[in-house]
Specification:
The protein is mainly α. It is 67% helix and 0% strand. It contains 4 helices and no strands. α1 runs antiparallel to α4, α2 runs antiparallel to α3 and α3 runs antiparallel to α4. The chain starts with 14 loop residues before the first helix and ends with a helix.
């Protein structure tokens, strides 16, 4: 398995990550995924930066809730996306 470096955590998602986000959004019946991809990029950077934080799950949930309110997106979908990305790292 390839070790992630800071350079790998760029401003884009891999095809696998986009596919996972699409599957999560399908469960919620959400069609336009671009705003959720933007969240995925943002949360991926946060997870990479704070992966050793024991409160990371709580932080992720709070960030997802704030982002959902700010961008008028589905909070549960954002939380699922964040947890999926966290578990893949």
């Amino acid at each position: 398995m390839k070790k992630r470096t800071r350079k790998d955590c760029s401003d884009e998602l891999s095809g696998e990550e986009k596919g996972a986000i699409d599957l999560i959004l399908m469960r919620y019946g959400i069609k336009p995924a671009s705003d959720y991809y933007k969240f995925g990029i943002k949360i991926k950077k946060i997870i990479d930066r704070y992966r050793n934080n024991p409160n990371l799950d709580k932080e992720i949930s709070e960030i997802a809730e704030e982002y959902a309110i700010k961008e008028e997106l589905n909070k549960d979908a954002l939380t699922d996306i964040a947890m999926h990305l966290k578990n893949k790292q």
